[in-house]
Design goal:
The chain is α+β, with helices and mostly antiparallel strands and about 650 residues long. It folds into two domains: about 5-375, 3-Layer(aba) Sandwich (Rossmann fold), CATH 3.40.50; about 410-510 and about 545-650, Galactose-binding domain-like (Jelly Rolls), CATH 2.60.120. Helices cover about 30% and strands about 15% of the residues. Strands 1-6-5-4-2-3 form a six-stranded mixed sheet, sandwiched between helices. Strands 7, 9, 10, 14, 17 and 19 form a six-stranded antiparallel sheet that branches. Helix 11 links the parallel strand 4 and strand 5.
Length: about 650
């Protein structure tokens, strides 16, 4: 191992992952020419020969049991870089390379696997900025956003999830006590909730954000669908953060769900989501890693460690109810999936290694660039753009999807930000449900009342930034919205849409196509229409898409009641009721969903009723805890703890 540290980084995941010249746009940088650092020459050649002899001797001793091999601690790369840069090391060593960084565990991926897995690199400009900070020994802020894979489902222990493993790699290779490394995964959600609450989940000065939604967003949607627009809005929000973070797309691949065109399993081009997200990666210059690209050859050939004919968790089923074959305890290390969707411990490690390979490649490039003034960097030998042109190209471009919001508008008022949303009340008070807890999230603050007849009014802007301002009620030059309850036909349509979406969610499908989410023209088309008998009538006015409101409230097994929710001014909506009762022996936040028309000052009243809930309880308590407004589909109420998870991942940012 000591000799290994003196070798160049060639052949490691870091370097080989970037050896494809087409990925960089440089024909000179094929895998044969790729080297992390300058070749050792002169007297060092003799030294290399001596090292070879010592390696042979060491192998003999190990084989005979004369000595025992022990794992050396990972040497921080930035320490060696600093010594070389500052002149603390001898000149010969400064011209050579620092010890190649290693993973803090035995790797599962080969260099070729990592190279296949990095499906898009682009300029890597923002990733280079992260690498520069790591090499300088500075702390970084890194976040992972995603669904159940990012949350860690499929692992046997919390620390085995890919975000934890990836963060372990950063701490080991680039240790710093002030790193901020946070996992913001929420199981069972689509990207919509993250698009609405991105600023509450990621600090403004973030350095690196990993985004994983390939298996969570619906695979069968056109690129112009609202859910795809929502994903683009999420990317735009992240790219516009003041810290200019490197945004990396991580594509998971569900072999057991990849069916179509006569294939029951393992269809390579499923899900279509990955193709759509890759187009966005090309447009926004986002590095991307893909489980499908890296592992499909291993999976289809049944390579040990990546087998897919069994899963490692028992009592798992396909969507049609057919039981999945489970691996025996002694053979689980041969398989990749824990169930039909999620990777097991080994699988999560593979995801972490793909991300680590991407970072190591950026560190490799950054080292050579800084050591040699750019002469060995990716720009060497090519035309140079002016600083002004480079600045223009580095700016966030206009939306790729036509009609998408240039600057997405949404509202995510969670925790402290929710208090000012109530602009008038009678009987409701802002208080903690558990005042003795040590933090704000645990204390469960909210607007609470226990008396029927008490009410609280929330006011918010429900307009869509993608719609011209003069077309939205409440804007300058636009007619005001009708009074609440005036448009009975629209209310009926809203109620029907809500029922259809709820049915889709119960079936495990996120409602996203424009025929159900209110994005289409409710009149059925433009131009004049002809009534029965041939009489010409004026066309119906085009109805703007509704905004979706997600009102977070408390549910518990005792003392809870029911509240009426209705629009009282500005916007219109169907009257609905939120129920705080259930049988579960738990007190959690829950989401009440309804739609409102667009208005600058949409005002909604929540009134405590005297009626009993679905589970009759002694008490009528209603506690409101958060408000979100979005113009893209949000899949969030498929699990009872979604609102609780959202509250945890939007806690006060560090």
């Amino acid at each position: 191992m000591g000799a290994e540290e003196l070798l160049p980084l060639r052949g490691s995941p870091a370097s080989s992952s970037q050896s494809d010249g087409s990925r960089r746009g440089s024909p000179e940088r094929g895998s044969s020419a790729r080297s992390a650092f300058p070749q050792q020459t002169g007297g060092l050649g003799v030294y290399a020969a001596l090292v070879t002899v010592l390696l042979v001797l060491a192998c003999v001793l190990l084989a005979t049991g004369t000595v025992q091999w022990t794992r050396e601690p990972l040497r921080p790369l930035h320490a060696a870089f600093s010594a070389s840069r500052d002149g603390a090391a001898p000149a010969a060593l400064r011209d050579a390379a620092p010890p190649p960084p290693r993973l803090p565990w035995p790797p599962l991926l080969s260099a070729a696997d990592v190279q296949r897995g990095i499906t898009y690199h682009g300029t890597g400009a923002r990733l280079q900025a992260v690498a520069a900070k790591l090499l300088e020994g500075q702390p970084i802020k890194a976040y992972t956003l995603g669904g159940s894979v990012t949350k860690g489902q499929g692992t046997s222990v919390d620390g085995a999830a890919y975000p934890h493993r990836f963060f372990d790699f950063i701490r080991a290779a680039f240790p710093h006590s002030k790193h901020v490394l946070l996992n913001k995964g929420i199981g069972g959600t689509s990207s919509g909730i993250f698009a609405a609450c991105a600023e509450q989940m990621v600090a403004p000065d973030a350095d690196l954000v990993v985004v994983e939604f390939t298996v969570n967003d619906r695979p069968d949607l056109p690129l112009t669908d609202l859910q795809r627009k929502g994903f683009e809005q999420l990317l735009r929000k992240l790219l516009r953060l003041p810290g200019r973070p490197a945004v990396v797309l991580l594509h998971h691949y569900p072999w057991w769900r990849a069916s179509g065109n006569g294939r029951r399993l393992g269809l390579f081009y499923y899900p279509l989501t990955e193709q759509h997200f890759t187009l966005l990666a090309h447009y926004y210059d986002l590095p991307s890693v893909s489980v499908r690209a890296a592992l499909h050859p291993l999976m289809r050939n049944g390579v040990d460690g990546f087998k897919v004919d069994k899963v490692t968790q028992r009592n798992r089923h396909m969507a049609n109810g057919r039981a999945l074959p489970a691996a025996a305890a002694g053979e689980r290390d041969r398989y990749f999936y824990a169930d039909r969707t999620h990777p097991n411990d080994r699988g999560h490690q593979v995801l972490a290694e793909l991300l680590a390979g991407l970072v190591l490649g950026a560190v490799d490039e950054q080292y050579r660039q800084q050591q040699h003034g750019g002469r060995a960097g990716p720009d060497a030998g090519w035309a140079q753009r002016s600083a002004k042109v480079q600045q223009t190209l580095a700016a966030v471009p206009p939306p790729m999807i036509p009609g998408n919001a240039e600057e997405p508008t949404s509202l995510c008022a969670i925790q402290e930000a929710f208090q000012p949303m109530v602009v008038a009340s009678q009987g409701f008070e802002w208080r903690a449900e558990r005042p003795n807890e040590t933090n704000f999230v645990g204390q469960k603050w909210g607007w609470t009342s226990t008396k029927p007849g008490d009410w609280a009014e929330l006011q918010f802007d429900s307009r869509d930034g993608a719609v011209p301002p003069d077309a939205v009620p409440g804007s300058a030059g636009a007619a005001d919205a009708p009074a609440a309850g005036a448009a009975d036909d629209e209310a009926a349509e809203d109620e029907e849409e809500q029922e259809e979406e709820a049915a889709s969610d119960r079936a495990g499908i996120s409602a996203g196509d424009s025929s159900r989410n209110g994005s289409s023209d409710s009149s059925g088309g433009g131009g004049n229409s002809t009534a029965a008998g041939g009489a010409s009538v004026a066309p119906k006015a085009k109805r703007l898409p509704n905004a979706e409101v997600l009102l977070s409230h408390l549910r518990s097994y005792e003392g809870m009641g029911v509240a009426q929710v209705r629009c009282v001014s500005g916007c219109t909506c169907t009257t609905t009721y939120l129920d705080g009762t259930w049988e579960q022996q738990a007190t959690l936040q829950y989401i009440h969903r309804f739609k409102v028309s667009q208005h600058a000052k949409c005002r909604v009243r929540v009134r405590v009723t005297s009626q009993a809930g679905a589970v009759p309880q002694q008490g009528r308590k209603v506690t409101l805890m958060g408000l979100m407004v979005s113009h893209i589909p949000i899949r969030m109420h498929t699990r009872d703890d979604h609102a609780e998870q959202l509250s945890n991942v939007t806690r006060r940012l560090l």
